[in-house]
Design goal:
Length: about 120
């Protein structure tokens, strides 16, 4: 059902937790399923230098959040806006139709983060 990469991100999440301090914080929710993604990022020179995440949701959302953190490191706001849901799906080795909402949740988080960089 789930790919090996998705299960690896779920069982060994990257960049989970909080940064605290002066981190930019965004939180997005999927109203259809109730999953919530919180991203905390430290930005240097307009680029994401460090990021942490927390998810309250399903296996796919937890794994996709982990994958997202690797995809956004080093990106500026324009780079965050260029991400596609398919990029997140690819990073976890694909998502079954019932789990595609996880990639959309992460994409919403990346876009929210892009909106906060430089403020």
């Amino acid at each position: 059902m789930y790919s090996e990469r998705l299960l690896d991100h779920f069982q060994n999440p990257r960049n989970a937790g909080s940064l605290g301090g002066s981190a930019i914080v965004v939180e997005v929710e999927n109203p259809a399923c109730g999953d919530i993604l919180r991203l905390e990022a430290r930005v240097e020179d307009g680029r994401i230098a460090e990021i942490r995440y927390k998810v309250r949701g399903c296996t796919a959302s937890i794994a996709a959040g982990s994958a997202l953190t690797g995809l956004v490191l080093g990106r500026d706001a324009a780079g965050l806006r260029q991400l596609r849901a398919a990029d997140i799906e690819d990073e976890v080795g694909g998502l079954i139709p019932e789990s595609k909402h996880a990639a959309v949740l992460c994409l919403d988080g990346a876009r929210a983060l892009a909106g906060r960089i430089g403020q």
